[in-house]
Design brief:
- Helix 13 crosses helix 14.
- The mean pLDDT is 94.
- The protein is α/β, with parallel strands linked by helices and 485 residues long.
- The protein is 33% helix and 22% strand.
- It has 17 helices and 24 strands.
Length: 485
């Protein structure tokens, strides 16, 4: 591809140098530059990419995309100047990787909770239907059956378009992806064409980045603002923010609900820790999921699949065969009859959803134990709220470490305990070592009790002082239950 072909769909302020130069790749990280690459200098939250232009040229960049031109220009380099490189990097990456979302149908899922479950179930369902499918999620990315490790919910525009390009090149007809608020705010999804979007719910999260709930909410809404005419927007009518999300969308709006009139409706007929009998649009179906929050997730999957052209009966048969996503309300039972549940719940609302479900199934026939913590170097305001909800909805609570990152674990625990009264603090155990906290709960729980181990879910590591250590809640629980013997 030439520089002229790369930039033809955009409007640069100016181009200095030849546009006929062939380019071999596009990068925003100067350390990854190879000979013949385009380097896009972005003003990021941590550093200004313009200061790395000399390094990129040293490594062989022959085209520099920037907002401010360097003081000295090299004759062997073409300079393309834009007013905002953050806004343009997505469209450039989409162009370079062959406009992948013009070659397959892409559906995005956004909201605070439920994104991973919905995107993953859609991926699994459409593979069951016989399609080649891609997935971009918090847990793992997939190109049909090939796993591609991931480090964040929505990658940077270059990584994302490279991944989508591979999906399209390898014949994927559909792709499902989680769309984070960071991705919308930082325009990582710029240039992509979505066939549909799903809104799950909105509660407090990521205020360390967005600063206010309104800014966080507006970032989510920005995703629906860019949906084109002909796409669909499916919103959770049980969340008060649902209608706000689609105020300015061009997409066809559909709703799902457990409580009010909607396009896609469901109610629980019967439930246990093994699954639920549901009535979905007057069809009865048994699913291997538990909890009202999962009913909402399944309705979103059902709605999207039908909007993509599949019959209701076909979709429900597929849903009945599916299992929970890794780290999302996963059940592990001891031989003595203690049930442990591993869940990614790391916000106050997610914790309430999971604990409410546990208590609805338990119906007082056993005690609910909660082991939870909060991540370091993240929104400190939610820490006391997490502790309050854990105590409110559990019989016993053990507060412990999550991913302390660069903070002291005990300081995070103290922030959580600050949300409790003196009387509540006397009933709570605080154990810094997460392994020991889980072991304590497993030792003290009696047959019929349920232990919720919350916060990490699918993660198989802890980050302590910036160093990643192997740690898997599932493994620790099975060891405590003697299931690995």
């Amino acid at each position: 591809m030439t520089i002229k072909q790369l930039t033809q769909a955009t409007q640069p302020r100016q181009i200095l140098g030849t546009q006929e130069r062939e380019i071999s790749g596009i990068e925003i990280d100067s350390r990854r530059i190879e000979k013949g690459n385009v380097f896009v200098a972005m003003r990021g939250t941590q550093a200004d990419g313009h200061q790395f232009i000399p390094k990129a040229m040293e490594l062989g960049a022959t085209c520099i995309v920037c907002e401010t031109l360097p003081d000295t220009l090299d004759e062997g380099v073409t300079y393309v100047q834009y007013d905002n490189t953050e806004a343009i990097v997505g469209p450039l990456a989409t162009q370079f990787f062959g406009n992948p979302t013009q070659r397959m149908k892409l559906v995005g899922v956004t909201g605070t909770n439920g994104k991973t479950t919905i995107a993953t179930l859609l991926y699994e369902m459409f593979r069951r239907f016989g399609y080649k499918v891609g997935l971009c999620s918090t847990v793992c990315n997939y190109i049909d059956g090939e796993p591609i490790p991931t480090e964040c919910t929505t990658p940077d525009p270059i990584t994302l378009n490279r991944l989508l390009g591979r999906m399209a090149d390898e014949g994927c007809q559909y792709a499902f992806m989680e769309v984070s608020s960071h991705a919308v705010a930082q325009q990582r999804i710029g240039g992509l064409t979505f066939a549909g979007g799903i809104f799950t719910n909105l509660t407090r999260d990521h205020l360390d980045y967005h600063k206010t709930f309104e800014a966080y909410r507006d970032a989510k809404k920005g995703f629906f603002d860019i949906l084109p005419k002909g796409a669909f927007a499916i919103i959770n009518a049980d969340d008060k923010n649902g209608a706000f999300m689609v105020q300015n969308t061009k997409a066809t709006v559909k709703t799902y609900s457990q409580r009010t009139a909607a396009d896609f409706k469901a109610k629980i007929l019967e439930e246990s820790f093994d699954g639920m009998n549901l009535n979905v649009d007057n069809h009865e179906v048994y699913v291997q999921f538990v909890g009202r929050f999962n009913v909402s997730n399944l309705l979103a999957v059902y709605g999207a699949a039908t909007m993509l052209g599949h019959k209701a009966e076909e979709v429900l048969i597929a849903l009945s065969a599916m299992k929970p996503v890794n780290g999302r309300f996963e059940t592990i039972r001891s031989r003595e009859g203690v049930t442990a549940i591993v869940d990614y719940a790391h916000t106050p609302d997610a914790l309430v959803n999971v604990l409410t479900t546990i208590n609805e199934v338990l119906q007082g026939r056993g005690q609910c134990w909660t082991v939870c913590g909060a991540g370091g170097n993240r929104d400190k305001g939610k820490r006391p709220l997490m502790a309050q909800e854990a105590v409110k909805h559990s019989n016993r609570v053990i507060i412990t470490s999550d991913n302390p990152r660069f903070e002291e674990p005990q300081a995070i625990i103290d922030d959580m305990l600050a949300g409790l009264t003196d009387e509540q603090r006397r009933t709570v155990l605080s154990i810094v070592d997460r392994r020991e906290a889980i072991r304590t709960a497993c030792t003290l729980a009696q047959p019929g009790d349920v232990i919720l181990v919350a916060g990490k879910g699918h993660e198989d590591y802890q980050i302590i002082q910036g160093v990643k250590h192997h740690f898997d809640d599932h493994e620790v629980i099975r060891e405590c239950f003697g299931l690995n013997l």
